[in-house]
Amino acid sequence: MASSSERLLAGKVALITGTNRGIGRAMMETFARQGAIVYAGARTEGCLDAAAAELGRRCETEVCPVYFDVTDGAGMRAAFVRIKRERQRLDVLVNNAGIMRDAVIGMVTNDLLQETFAVNVFAVAQAIQYAAKFMVPQKSGSIVNLASIVGVAGHAGQLAYSASKGAVIAMTKTAAKELAPHGIRVNAIAPGMIDAGVFQAIGAERARTFAATIGMGRLGRPEDVANAAVFLASDLADYVTGQILGVDGAVAI
């Protein structure tokens, strides 16, 4: 274990949404190893209690589960109120929670669009608003949003998802401009094909097919995205804002 002075996020208070699995779980673990005090968001009450306690002990920091659905405005507000009461500051917000519902154009319904945008766009906008209330008086802070390569390049069969991630990119660039005078940085990560969530269910043969389209010859790992988030959250990125950082291994899409 590196000393606290050597850890990139030592003492920083961070809220990460969607930490119960995949990229979010990797972020929770990586931020804790880098010394952050992590508020780990998830929907299911109690699902992180044991893991958070063990991770906090192992990394000599605090990992605090906060249970809420990002589409529940009251639940989200309660999470930020708790952080305000317990820490009086928030240094990092990572908007990781998201959903992907694929459908070809003819099968995209209003319900599908509304569900996707509720989680991937509206909840992100609200979280940015709450975080700004902490960070503007502090004159400091880093907000990291999870976009996607399909929000940049598009992809057949993913109209709703790619549109929602394109909206995240636009929000990121706009929020960065608005919040920069207050010392707040806003960036996004655009992952490519990551071996988490949906990709864990496609089987080894299809995974090899996807990997063949990636310049680096493998699917990305959740830790690849988590490491990028640590950089953007840390003081190493002190002059980086409004950027969309691709973590895609040179995928051809």
Low-confidence stretches: none
Indicate the CATH architecture. Answer: 3-Layer(aba) Sandwich
Alpha plus pi helix count: 8
- Name the helicity range: 40-55%
List the domain count as a whole number: 1
Percent strand: 5-15%
CATH topology: Rossmann fold
SSE string: EHEHEHEHEHHEHHE
Please count the beta strands (DSSP E, at least 2 residues each). Answer: 7
Task: Look at the structure and name the CATH superfamily.
Answer: NAD(P)-binding Rossmann-like Domain
Radius of gyration: 17 Å
- Spatial separation of the terminal alpha carbons: 39 Å
Main sheet properties: 7 strands, parallel
Shape: globular
Structural class: alpha/beta
The CATH C-level name is Alpha Beta
Placed side by side, the strands forming the largest sheet appear as 3-2-1-4-5-6-7
- Mean pLDDT, to the nearest integer, reads 94
Overview of this protein structure:
There is one protein chain. The chain has 253 residues and is α/β, with parallel strands linked by helices. It has one domain: NAD(P)-binding Rossmann-like Domain (Rossmann fold, 3-Layer(aba) Sandwich), CATH 3.40.50. Helix content is 45%, strand content 15%. Helix 4 runs parallel beside helix 6.
